Amino acid sequence: QVQLVESGGGLVQAGGSLRLSCAASGVYAVGWFRQAPGKEREFVATISRSTGSTYYADSVKGRFTISRDSAKNTVYLQMNSLKPEDTAVYYCAARLGIGGRRTSNEYDYWGQGTQVTVSS
């Protein structure tokens, strides 16, 4: 069975940082997505299963970093220089195969989400 559990969300002041964690039951290509109130779910970042290749949405490039700790079967999303517009529920997703993808319908498994709120 595949199980994804996100953690690390919370309330932070603009300009601050948070690190989200995604604990997985296996090794997969992993992506982070987010959904703000009244908006559609959008891509944030992805990392491949074995090569470690990463890709970021333009809106977070240079501020967010996705990484993998293989020993802990955990993928992280380090979020720096947070802005109020980053406020959303953040979801961890995994897909079969090696390569990461940037659209939600290409992922097979999803976590329950963790709330990130950035105050002005």
Please give a quick description of this structure.
The chain is 0% helix and 49% strand. Strands 2, 4, 5, 6, 9, 10 and 11 form a 7-stranded mixed β-sheet that branches. A 4-stranded antiparallel β-sheet has the order 1-3-8-7, with no helix packed on it.
Written account of the structure:
This protein is mostly beta strands. It contains no helices and eleven strands. The chain has strands at residues 4-7, 10-13, 18-24, 29-35, 42-47, 54-56, 64-69, 74-79, 88-95, 109-110, 114-119. The strands form two sheets. Strands 2, 4, 5, 6, 9, 10 and 11 form a seven-stranded mixed beta sheet that branches. A four-stranded antiparallel beta sheet has the order 1-3-8-7, with no helix packed on it. It is globular, with a radius of gyration of 13 Å. The model has no long low-confidence stretch (mean pLDDT 92).
Number of strands: 11
Give the helices and strands as they follow along the chain. EEEEEEEEEEE
Mean pLDDT: 92
**Percent helix:** under 10%
Low-confidence region ranges: none
